[in-house]
Amino acid sequence: MANEMMNRNDFGMLDPFERMAQRFWAPFNDGEQVLKTDISETDDQYQVKVDIPGIDKQDVKLAYRDNRLSIKVQKHSFVDHSDQKQDIVMNERREGLLQRDYMLPDVDPEKIKAVQTDGVLTITLPKSKQVTDSGKIAID
User: Fold this and answer.
1) Domain ranges of the chain
2) Rounded Cα distance, 101 and 110, in Å
3) Any residues with CB less than 8 A from the CB of 44 and at least 6 apart, and which?
4) 17, 39, 116, 126: least surrounded by Cβ within 10 Å?
């Protein structure tokens, strides 16, 4: 109880340094603004699954270059024009560009496939059939 009383001030507000720290870290604390991803690998391919609920496939841009898969998602905000009384209590859906890059080497870019179903983007990246060498050099 004593600690609780010491951490409060007369206005019931946070310490100014605590408020400053919360504002500093706020952009990193918004877990909803991150592309949640699962990546699995087999001998033949990588499979990437990304949660993109409510996003149309034309708002998703994929690229593979220099062993890097890039995903860009343009997220549009939800605007309810029928709310004439302006009685919306909370509005957390935002707009903006979400982007992530993943290093996935030795992929055959001509065979990459992507499918979006039920808010999940699944990207299959077949590995190229290059002959892998041990990297050892024999000395004559």
Assistant:
1) 29-79+88-126
2) 19
3) 126, 127
4) 17
d(CA 112, CA 71): 13
pLDDT by 10s per residue, the chain, length 140: 444 444 444 444 556 777 677 666 665 555 556 789 999 999 999 999 999 988 888 999 999 999 999 999 987 766 655 666 777 777 666 678 889 999 999 999 999 999 999 999 999 999 997 655 555 656 65
pTM for the complete prediction? 0.64
N residues, the chain:
140
Q: What CA–CA distance (Å, rounded) separates 52 from 38?
A: 12
Domain 29-79+88-126, CATH number (from 2.60.40.790, 2.30.110.10, 3.30.565.10, 3.40.50.1820)? 2.60.40.790
Quote the DSSP letter at residue 92: -
Burial tier of 92 (Cβ tally within 10 Å: 0-12, 13-18, 19+)? exposed
Backbone dihedral region of 10: left (phi > 0), alpha (psi from -120 to 50 degrees) or beta?
alpha
Query: What residues contact residue 43 under an 8 Å CB cut-off, 6+ apart?
Result: 127
